[in-house]
Write a structure and sequence with these properties.
Elements (H helix, E strand, L loop, with lengths): L1 H21 L5 E6 L9 E5 L4 E8 L5 H4 L4 E4 L3 H11 L15 E2 L8 E7 L9 E4 L10 E7 L1
Parallel strand pairs: 1-3, 2-8
Antiparallel strand pairs: 3-6, 4-5, 4-7, 7-8
The structure holds copper (I) ion.
Length: about 150
């Protein structure tokens, strides 16, 4: 009997190996912000095969958004500082994002401990080879809370 089932196991292992790369691209990512002013990811790769990409932001801490609020803002890396400065000036009521800021590709609202928010954006708004940055625009947070986003092949 032992000789009979061995080829079956081999077939199953091969099938799993083939299924891996062939499965549909993951068109979403989840990122965590915490009470220590940290994001759980330093980079995100968006598969080019996705039409829309969804980012879910979760605040895993306990502090209220007035003290330790987090958002997730996406811009070109070169636009980050300008969008950040204008976002901070816009204030908490605007989620620290300037109204109609064309540099901002996508952003969530500001969330406090235990809260979450999600944003979807068209992958066509990203260009291959361009360097994008995501960050939290709550005053003072972007020094630590930032990462890079790229369009993956
Ligand atoms: Cu933050």
């Amino acid at each position: 009997m032992a000789i009979l089932w061995k080829p079956l196991v081999l077939v199953a292992v091969c099938a799993a190996a083939v299924a891996g790369p062939a499965r549909a691209a993951d068109c979403s990512a989840e990122i965590d912000g915490n009470d220590a002013m940290q994001f759980s990811k330093a980079s995100i790769a968006v598969p080019a095969s996705c039409k829309q990409f969804t980012l879910k932001l979760k605040h895993s801490g306990k502090l209220p958004k007035t003290a330790m609020g987090h958002n997730w803002v996406l811009t070109k890396a070169a636009d980050m500082q300008g969008a950040l400065t204008d976002g901070i000036a816009a204030g908490a009521a605007k989620n620290f994002v300037k109204d109609g800021d064309a540099r901002v590709i996508a952003h969530t609202k500001l969330v406090g401990g235990g809260e979450s928010d999600a944003v979807s954006f068209p992958v066509a708004s990203l260009k291959a080879g361009e360097s994008y940055a995501y960050f939290c625009s709550f005053p003072g947070h972007a020094a630590l809370m930032k990462g890079t986003l790229t369009l993956a092949k």
